[in-house]
Amino acid sequence: MEPDDKENECPRLSEMVPGMAGTFKALGDHTRLQIIYLLSTDTSGTLGVSDLAARLGISQPAVSQHLKTLKSEGLVESRREGFFICYTVNRDRIMQFREQFDLMYASVMEQCNREMVRKSTRDRNLRACVIFYSYSGITRRVAEGIRNASGCDLIEVRTKTPYSSFTAYTTGVIRSRKMACDQIEPAEIDVSAYDFLIIGTPVWAWKPSPAINGAVQALKGCEGKMAVVFTTCSNQPGEALPLLSKSLADRGVRVMAEISLDAEDTKNPDAGGELLRKIIGADPLRSLESGTPGTGQQTIRDVKS
Ligand SMILES: Cc1cc2nc3c(=O)[nH]c(=O)nc-3n(C[C@H](O)[C@H](O)[C@H](O)COP(=O)(O)O)c2cc1C
User: Fold this and answer.
1) How far is the CA of 182 from the centre of ligand 1 (A)?
2) At the topology level of CATH, where does 3-93 sit?
3) Which of 133, 205, 257, 260 pairs as cysteine with 173 (C-beta 3.0–4.6 A)?
4) Residues facing 133 on adjacent strands
């Protein structure tokens, strides 16, 4: 994370923490969790104090007290229907709590990831960079997660002519099926200063995006470098990974691992950290240490079918 982002993040965390502590406290009770469960699984939307008391086997005043606590945290809402008061879970508050939790989770994972990278690189001064294209932001978020965890450089490739939501699915898909190379910025990507490249692209029509094909052609000083490639996709990576690896191999790059992330994987706020864990698990650094890039080591493929 850049220092600027950190500054923006901290006030948010200090705002969030008191609210989260109250919510955890409200939820940190067996009966109240049961109430949340009963309300969230009830399809009638008409549960009242007496129903809850009967299902939980406790007194109505006890249920009222628990509901008061849940309501004060905004977790539960009530509405009057005649003489009857019904209770429901407040979806918006639960979603807000989840977002707060995700933010805290991402922050904690970032720290763990940095520790993981430090241990696995044994404090060697490895120069790595992530080169990526992203049309709708998913691959960018993963790439930034890797950068935040490892401190490596980030090189975002953009198409000279940006795709619209129409041209992406027309021209873009046709071009990706032909393995065409888009004109990109930067026009040249000099990687001679790096030991290790991580290259990421969204899948377009089961193939790499034309922008990343353009990026592979724009590489300078890439011969003999080691790389890991990754794709993000909805659920069907098709041939995107092997095709991207082949384009890189044609440029003299040695691809050590291919990793595909689907929509479920990229929902994880720590998707970048998870990817880094897989990369480290594939241990491309060991062969870097042995000093034999460019010679036949098996590519590790991690693709869900
Ligand atoms: C033009 C286009 C074609 C796509 N083709 C595929 C595909 O073949 N298989 C798939 O699983 N997802 C496909 N997707 C979904 C994207 O690969 C997926 O949402 C990806 O994570 C988006 O990454 P981005 O936000 O970095 O652009 C396509 C998306 C677009 C825009």
Assistant:
1) 16
2) Arc Repressor Mutant, subunit A (1.10.10)
3) 205
4) 157
Residue 185 near residue 133, CB atoms below 8 Å? no
**Would you call 145 exposed, middle or buried from its count of C-beta atoms within 10 A (0-12, 13-18, 19+)?**
buried
Ligand 1 close to Cβ of residue 169 (< 6 A): yes
For ligand 1, atom 18, the nearest C-alpha belongs to 233
Protein residue with its CA nearest to atom 4 in ligand 1: 204
Ligand 1 center from residue 244 Cα (angstroms): 15
Q: Are 180 and 210 in contact (CB under 8 A)?
A: yes
- Structure-token pair, residue 224: 């003999």
Cα–Cα distance measured from residue 43 to residue 38, given in angstroms and rounded to the nearest whole number: 10
- The structure tokens 């693709």 sit at 303
Q: Could you count the other beta carbons within 10 Å of the beta carbon of residue 211?
A: 27
Q: What is the pLDDT of residues 13-35, one digit of tens each?
A: 677 777 788 999 999 999 999 99
| pLDDT tens digits, 99-141 | 888 888 877 777 776 676 666 665 566 789 999 999 999 999 9
CB pairs under 8 A, 24+ apart, for 30-39?
31/56, 31/58, 31/62, 31/66, 32/66, 32/69, 32/70, 35/63, 35/66, 35/67, 35/70, 35/76, 36/70, 36/75, 36/76, 36/89, 39/76, 39/87, 39/88, 39/89
Dihedral over Cα of 215, 221, 223, 229: its sign: negative
Structure tokens at 102: 């995700």
Superfamily of 123-302 according to CATH = Flavodoxin domain (3.40.50.360)
**CATH 1.10.10.10 residue ranges in the chain?**
3-93
